[in-house]
Amino acid sequence: MATKKHANLNKFLIAIETSVICGFLLLHMTPGMAVRTVLITNGYFKSAMTAKIVKTNENPDGIGTAKRNSNDGTVYYVEPSPVSKEKNIRMNPHPNRMIVKTFGLSFAEMTGEG
Asked: Which pLDDT belongs to residue 64?
């Protein structure tokens, strides 16, 4: 009887682990989803659901549109600029500029520049 309880617990834990891994993969599958994930984790819920994500040819270091290393990432803008109603979140002065690096999966970060 004890082994039956452990078997059910193991199936439950495997289901949770699989769900977490699948969720992570889905949230980082495309650059747009990675940008939306960063917006949600920084408290910009409405913008994450409704904003338009625009890819640019801008250089990630902010110096024109010259040739860049492919590992530098790609700059994306969120339009319109996100606004949060939360009072206790870390506010970024320019939350609309993101650098997205893609290595099979995409990972975005706010740059704080604009």
From this structure: 54
